[in-house]
Amino acid sequence: MNKVILMGRLTRDPEVRYSAGENALAIARYTLAVDRRFRRDGEASADFINCVSFGRTAEFAEKYFRQGLKIAVTGRIQTGSYTNREGQKVYTTEVVVEDQEFAESKASSDSYAASHPRTEAAPAPSMPSPSAASADGFMNIPDGIDEELPFN
């Protein structure tokens, strides 16, 4: 079985391109900085994992993901190789993303961004904000909703 689950922060905004042809397919590439659980000599260390997503998943990444955002992804590892311009064979390893989601609230993401300023100016991400959201970032669910749910 080839299954990967990662949680980390985006090292930069996703790079999105579209395939050629009549039915253009979005392809998003980004790198996740995933903290290592154990620290050597008390210093934090991270692995930098290349990820690629396709189609609607890539379009979602393009629209909502920004540098520094903490996300969780699931997918599979894919290896490959190519010959570079110097004629050397280069081996690649990346995670093909099947599912991705936010791993922190917008407020946490904003406070992280404020404490880790970027060197370049970037537009603020336009994330959907439910009108019924509370201060903790979760949607308020009204009392008595149980009767409206199709399962009990």
Describe the 3D structure.
It is a single chain. With 152 residues, this protein is mainly β. It has one domain: Beta Barrel (OB fold (Dihydrolipoamide Acetyltransferase, E2P)), CATH 2.40.50. Helix content is 13%, strand content 38%. The chain is built from 2 helices and 6 strands, in the order ββββαββα. A 5-stranded mixed β-barrel has the order 1-3-4-6-5. A hairpin with a 5-residue loop joins β5 and β6. The longest helix has 10 residues. It is globular, with a radius of gyration of 19 Å. About 10% of the residues have low confidence.
CATH superfamily: Nucleic acid-binding proteins
Q: Please mark out the parts with pLDDT under 50 across 5 or more consecutive residues, or reply none.
A: 119-133
General shape: globular
* Biggest pleated sheet: 5 strands, mixed, barrel
CATH structural architecture: Beta Barrel
